[in-house]
Automatic annotation (TrEMBL):
Residues 47-280 form the Ribosomal RNA methyltransferase FtsJ domain. The active site is at residue 238. It comes from Penicillium brevicompactum. This is rRNA methyltransferase 2, mitochondrial. GO terms for molecular function: rRNA (uridine-2'-O-)-methyltransferase activity. Residues 131-140, 263-273 have a biased composition (Basic and acidic residues). Belongs to the class I-like SAM-binding methyltransferase superfamily. RNA methyltransferase RlmE family.
Length: 283
């Protein structure tokens, strides 16, 4: 009496939703084809235009140098990891973590899993604990290289919830997070591969939802950084602007000597996307 029976409504609604998503994906493709950063990424062999956001941040704040250990949260398809691997040569190491499977860029180690899961964070810490794991092998020169000496971890003692004091090894020089809450794949299953993985939509289009989701991911990345980042280490985090970002900025200011908020030229002007850069972790 009130419209279509449930089963046919479900079928019709799903097909209408599919058409809307198909149209928005067509618009996305058309915009990508015109975009100068997308063209330049293809010319330079970079996995996506996102590389230019990190390159512009590094031009401004010089976060990378040779021999560093970098953790790239939400690395797929891999352009930030490509930049980090290139800028931390020689003998740096980059560990990418992502929900979706994607071919690791050259010189990058990867873990597939949900960063918000405690098991995955334990797995990441175990990987980082061994200073040589994930680094390119060097011929035996008899003496340890300066970058190995620099990679000695800091240690900090923290009291756990059970009252026990734990020693945390701080082994990381730079934490990057470009994570965005993913939206489900609805099309294109047949044509995607590990080297050109399906790219989930990064935003829902609902401003508060995108903001709140990004605050959860940034807060998790910051908590992790508090445990693993060496004194003097740096932090870069993408977020969607909104009412709670001031609170995040305050927390960053407690941990880093300098905190910058910026929107690189290559970040689309119509999006609420912006970045926090925390420089030089305090002791
Ligand atoms: C904008 S893309 C990253 C692009 C990447 N920086 C690059 O340059 O190629 C955001 C990524 O975050 C990942 N992501 C979102 N939430 C995550 C989570 N909880 N754990 C791991 N990865 C996550 C998504 O799967 C997606 O691949």
């Amino acid at each position: 009496m009130f419209g279509l029976p449930f089963r046919s409504c479900r079928a019709n609604c799903a097909s209408a939703l599919g058409q809307v998503r198909h149209a928005s994906s067509k618009r996305w493709q058309a915009r990508q084809q015109k975009d100068q950063f997308t063209k330049e990424a293809a010319v330079q062999g970079l996995k996506s235009r996102a590389a230019f956001k990190l390159l512009q941040i590094d031009e401004k704040y010089r976060i990378f140098k040779g021999g560093q250990t970098v953790v790239d949260l939400g690395y797929a398809p891999g352009s930030w990891s490509q930049v980090a691997a290139n800028r931390t040569q020689p003998h740096g190491r980059v560990l990418g973590v992502d929900l979706i499977p994607a071919q690791p860029p050259k010189g990058v180690s990867t873990i597939q899993g949900n960063f918000l899961s405690p098991e995955i964070q334990t797995y990441i810490r175990d990987f980082l604990r061994s200073p040589e794991r994930g680094r390119p092998r060097q011929p035996d020169l008899g003496e340890p290289s300066p970058s190995i000496l620099e990679s000695n971890p800091d240690e900090s003692a923290v009291e756990g919830k059970d009252g026990q004091v734990k020693i945390l090894e701080r082994t990381v020089d730079v934490v990057l997070s470009d994570m965005s809450a993913p939206w489900h794949q609805t099309s294109g299953f047949w044509k995607r591969s590990l080297s050109a993985p399906y790219r989930m939509m990064n935003t829902s289009g609902i401003v508060f939802k995108d903001h709140a989701g990004s605050m959860d991911l940034c807060n998790a990345a910051l908590r992790f950084s508090t445990d693993v980042l060496k004194t003097g280490g740096h932090f870069v985090c993408k977020f969607y602007q909104g009412s709670e970002d001031k609170e995040l900025e305050m927390q960053l200011k407690a941990l880093f000597k300098k905190v910058h908020r910026l929107k690189p030229e290559s970040s689309r002007s119509e999006s609420k996307e912006a970045f926090f850069v925390g420089l030089q972790r305090k002791p």
